[in-house]
Amino acid sequence: MSSNRTSKIPREIKIEKVEKPSYVVDRSKLRRFNSKNIIFERVMWDSSWEGYMRMYDEKVFKVIAEGKPGYSRVDFALAYASWIVHDAFEGGFSSTKIKTYRTPVDTIGIDWTRTKYEVDDLHKMSAYVKRAAWFFGASLIGICKLNRYWLYADVDIPEKFENVVVMAIEMDADAIATSPAAPAAAATGVGYSKMAFILACMGEFIRNLGYEAIQCGNDTALSIPLAIDAGLGELGRNGLLITPQYGPRVRLCKIFTDVPLEPDKPIEFGVNEFCKKCKLCAKHCEVDAISIDDEPSFEVVCRSNNPGALKWYVDVERCYLYWRENGIDCSTCIKVCPYNVTLAREASLSSSEFWECTQKQEI
Ligand code: SF4
Ligand code: SF4
């Protein structure tokens, strides 16, 4: 692992709208990914690898007892609290009208789903959808036609869901800057909890116009290629979406819908060429889970990779095992990425600095 930070992206990122997404796929190798191979699923069933049944709480108390900065009871309390809306609110990931636990007086007698709002201008309708998503808290919003290659092999959705609204949610820069300490993991949890809120509001917004919406986090389909199709960014060496606005410091979610919408064009801003030389994420990864090769390839490195795309495949098995040793998940390949660093306030922050900036904001 190197501690030298050398890569710098040009101050001004030049974004070009392009006709085709920037990824390269080999159709003869490309398969729809089976969701049972998602690393978190394999923890539950795949006894052939080391991470089988190794859960999040495995080393938490040992790690807290070691007394390292950023790994205190307070830091873990923050991280575990951050997930609560995601974990407790079922409505976040609904595909039908969300049931409420009380009947609000303002909706008695109204069934929005009985009539459809007539869409005669795709551009205007797309603008409404994007404005609503931004209003509800999404940081970036793009629209694409559904490429069914990105649906998980074990799921299918009706043909009428041909449009995808892809949303990116910015994660807190100060917290991510503490990675691999617990406040960084809290930023991830907040991203997921915000996702539940935004998805629920957006799903209901679409249903109130008489259309259907399937609200998805990481489930149902691969989010990154959909986000690339929708013009939100490009794929980085770290296996994450790199956005021009926040680098990889975002969480992704999406809604499949039958509302008539206008797709966005994909974008390019030089990520692939920059990643060939930069390699900071690979150098900073504690367990060498990210390829250091100059060129991307079609060679997968573990069962949780999806073959058929030209990229730097990430060894997510190693990554997961490091998370268990660390006591909590890591975001170092997000933290050090120059596309994040040039935009975030600080590249690296100690956990005590993280708590201090929170206090300053409260005064
Ligand atoms: S999240 Fe995983 S791949 Fe990224 S730096 Fe941490 S251990 Fe490495
Ligand atoms: S993804 Fe990795 S190689 Fe690419 S710019 Fe970010 S840190 Fe550098």
Sum up the structure in keywords:
two-stranded antiparallel ribbon; four-stranded antiparallel beta sheet; binds iron/sulfur cluster
Which series of helices and strands comes N to C? EHHHHHEEHHEHEEEEHHHHHH
Q: Roughly what fraction of the amino acids lie in strands?
A: 5-15%
Helical content (DSSP H or I, runs of 4+):
25-40%
Mean pLDDT: 92
Number of domains: 1
Oligomer: single chain
Attached small molecules: iron/sulfur cluster
Write down the overall geometry.
globular
Tally of alpha and pi helices? 14
Q: How many strand units?
A: 8
Radius of gyration: 21 Å
What is the gist of this entry?
This protein is of the alpha+beta class. It contains 14 helices and eight strands. Helix 5 packs across helix 7 (182-207).
How would you describe what is shown here?
By secondary structure, this protein is of the alpha+beta class. The chain has one domain (16-99, 110-362). It has 14 helices and eight strands. It has helices spanning 39-45, 60-66, 73-82, 84-88, 122-136, 173-176, 182-207, 223-229, 271-278, 280-284, 316-326, 332-335, 338-341, 351-362; strands spanning 16-17, 140-145, 163-170, 213-216, 234-235, 241-242, 250-257, 267-268. The strands form three sheets. It has a four-stranded antiparallel beta sheet with strand order 2-3-7-4, with helices on both faces. A hairpin with a 5-residue loop joins strand 5 and strand 6 (241-242). Helix 3 (73-82) runs parallel beside helix 7 and helix 5 (122-136) crosses helix 7. The radius of gyration is 21 Å and the shape is globular. The two termini are 39 Å apart. The model has no long low-confidence stretch (mean pLDDT 92). Residues 7, 236-238, 274-275, 278-281, 336-339 line the site of one iron/sulfur cluster (SF4).
